[in-house]
Amino acid sequence: MFRWARFSRLGAAFDGFAASGDWAAAVRAAVGDEVPAGIALVTVAADGGLTARTGLPRPVVPGATVPIDVVLSSAAERDLVVTVDGGEVPVPAGGAGLRTVDATAAPITLTCGGSTVALLATVAAAPATLRLSSPDGARWSITDTTGGAWFADGVPAKWDADDRPFFHTDPGTTALRVPAGPLHVVAARGLEFERATFDVEPDAGETVTVAYDPARRFHPRADGWFGGDLHVHLNYSGDHVLEPADARRMQRGEGLDVMQLAAGNLGGALVYDRELLASTAGSDLWPGARAGLEFRNDLLGHVHGLGLTGVPPLLQTGHEGTDHPWDWPPNSAACAGMRGLGAVTTYAHPVFAPEGDGPDELFRPFRMVEARELVADAALGLVDAVELVSCFDDRGALVLYHHLLSCGLRLAAVAGTDTFLSFARGPAPASNPPGWGRVYAQLGGAAPSVDAFAAAVRAGATVVTNGPWLALEVDGARPGAVLDRRRGDRLTVWACTRGSGVERLVLYGPDGELAATDGDRLEHELTVEAGLWLAAAAHGGADPHTVGAPVFAHTTPVYVDVDGHRVGRPASARWCLRLLDGLQELASDQGRFDPDDRARQLGDLVAVLDRARTFYRTVGETS
Question: Mean of the pLDDT values across residues 224-230?
């Protein structure tokens, strides 16, 4: 994957590969019949001969470079090596290869055996200067008429899930060299502010200023709500190596109050940014930012901890070639370890892409980093929160979350984008800006801090969103509150949304949708018969302020206890029990356990599942 990390059509290639299983065919389809600007498609014949087609040449100013993807498509029946701009690129028989060249206006030379080709994929352009001004920092996207992206010096060049280039600037003015001629500029600052577009056309040698001082879409801080992204990776392989200052610039440019930079391994022994966590645990990197940990087991799920005061003893399990290659101990041990160090425990990206609402359809039948042990660990009281907005499927997370709530569990809805700041491009939303989805926590008058934010998450005083603002009140109480009522009492509920992109505003409870509207305000009354929970959600399609996902927002519920009893739906308890059975079967079939100690290690997981089964059977019996 990492050889292709800079490929400008990476997202389309991944989509094609997922459908066909043929990487070379997916690459060819992503390039298309008409080669786009910024790409050179080179066919390698059976005898090693080279034939090239290029898209519209990209402008390049003196002293600068632009990325050109040289895609090699082989018709040969043997593996070959093609030299591209002095670097050797292996091309498998019938396959595809890539080298992304940082090109000047000079030709790019390719050789294979006795064949040589000189590509002309760029054109010299006269320089101009663009000055970008923003009082609070911003995210900028600058493109020329060929779609080529232009970036300020000293900042990572990135593209989001919709293949839009972007970079961030600090407050004040930043100047960059650009080609003279038409340029399209888009400025943004997270979810709370309006985007702005500018079309400018500087002459050769001219300086043009673009000023961005955005209007607000909504203002949560005015009512005590502060926004955070609890799952961001500073360095996580990819093609950039970043400093904390880069993350701070991005956080400020997105108007994000809290950000957790999670250390974590990718699949081997290396835990990226472990040193950052070890040297700063328990203290802020800067106001509103902390280092944390994403504990990773790809069978049982990933868990992160906000507010760690030290480095947990378990950083990962189940990855070959590491100190903990087995799927043991169960994730419950990792949750307890993080809790012991003061952390808020959250299961990350719970569901990849469900086929339906049934427990047998929710999770993939293989190692897929989904939150399988969440159902058990939540029942054991080891989990504080669930990522309801994440890099995976929000619909699947909603199904899982609602069933857990309907069993009387009280889990905060949070957001973690799993953004890889060190990735220039994808896959999927990995290279998005941090905070493209965020959790808002009601601090209740406390001074803004990571500790106050963590306390609000523990209390369930949260709303998650990837675009619009969403508010909920039940008899005047807001998310996370617990109301004590008697059977027959009436409840008054209202919810409202602000922003754009919302198509349906819905009131959910343990029995599904209770009310819905296509407007921006919902009012509803109901009679209490048994314990319940009430949460609002907003659903929509595409929107310019939402990056690479359908519009979605959801509150943590207001909980209603009736005559001293929590909600408890037998159908949801049975649903969770079937998930536990499925996890035990999957672990028995695909779990990695020490062959000399398999019975004990698997038995430890089964013991956790059995304790959770006791909880869910009790829910079913008493409801």
Answer: 98
CB atoms within 10 A of CB 611: 13
Q: Convert 477-540 into a string of H (helix), E (strand) and C (coil).
A: ECCCCEEEECCCCEEEEEEEEECCCEEEEEEEECCEEEEEECCCEEEEEEECCCCEEEEEEEEE
- By CB atoms closer than 10 A (0-12, 13-18, 19+), residue 120 is middle
Alpha carbon of 366 to those of 15, 154, 363, 591: distances in Å? 20, 41, 8, 10
Question: CA torsion sign, 270 to 272 to 277 to 279?
Answer: positive
Mean pLDDT over 328-348 rounds to 98
CB 299 within 8 A of CB 371: no
pLDDT on residue 211: 98
Q: Side-chain half-sphere of 62: how many Cα atoms within 13 Å?
A: 5
Look at the block and give the residue holding tokens 């499925």: 582
Report residue 73: phi and psi, to 5°. Answer: -120, 115
What are the helix (H) ranges across 21-152? 23-31
Task: Output the six-digit token pair for 115.
Answer: 């064949």
CA proximity to 236, closest of 423, 106, 367: 423
Q: Which amino acid is at 8?
A: S
Tokens 């610039």 label which residue? 249
Taken in order 95, 101, 103, 108, the sign of the CA dihedral is negative
Secondary structure (DSSP) of 542-584: --TTS-SS--EEEEPPEEEEETTB----HHHHHHHHHHHHHHH
User: Using 50, 70 and 90 to split pLDDT, how confident is the model at 405?
Assistant: very high
| Pairing relationship of beta strands 108-112 and 115-119 according to DSSP bridges | antiparallel
> Is the C-alpha dihedral spanning 411, 417, 420, 425 positive or negative?
positive
What is the pairing mode between strands 127-134 and 207-211? parallel
Instruction: Find how far residue 559's CA is from the centre of its chain.
Output: 28
- Tokens 């029990």 -> residue: 577
E-strand spans in 27-126? Answer: 39-44, 50-54, 58-60, 66-74, 80-84, 87-91, 96-103, 108-112, 115-119, 122-124
CB 137 within 8 A of CB 176: no
Give the pLDDT band of residue 623 (cuts 50, 70, 90).
very low
Distance of CA 392 to the CA centre of its chain: 7
